[in-house]
């Protein structure tokens, strides 16, 4: 029987730590932070060139907020935020994903780093890096993950390289799947 990723009723708490900016702390996100995390996610997708009609569609935002409400306490998810003066200004998220072992990843789980973003007025102060380091510490201390992957923008790549990430030989590709609408059930 295959082993499952680390799962518990509640994920291990991430220790709050001082952030790189005076008056800042780096900590695990709470339900009260969901709105800020969604706004930061919008900035991330904007930086990745997501078209405005998709970016500002309220449906995905509501879906993302629901997802966060369901998964903030999941042992396979860590959302780390940087809080400056009581306001969330930066975040990063890690997810444990089930994967078949490979020559470069011996375990049966991998890590996905995503949602790394900082509000423009707080950039270039080390806040994103502090959030990413918090997620990497969580992967190391609380999961069986031995390889973490991410999609980097050109602006973010130098930070990730400084943290030990290397470009993949094979770039990610995507295909959007379409489905016929399901007819409503007669009743």
Automatic annotation (TrEMBL):
It comes from the Bacteria. Keywords: Transferase. Transmembrane segments: none annotated. The keyword Nucleotidyltransferase does not apply. It holds the Pfam family Acetyltransf_1. GO terms for molecular function: acyltransferase activity, transferring groups other than amino-acyl groups. This is GNAT family N-acetyltransferase. It comes from Janibacter melonis. Residues 24-183 form the N-acetyltransferase domain. InterPro entries: Acyl_CoA_acyltransferase, GNAT_dom.
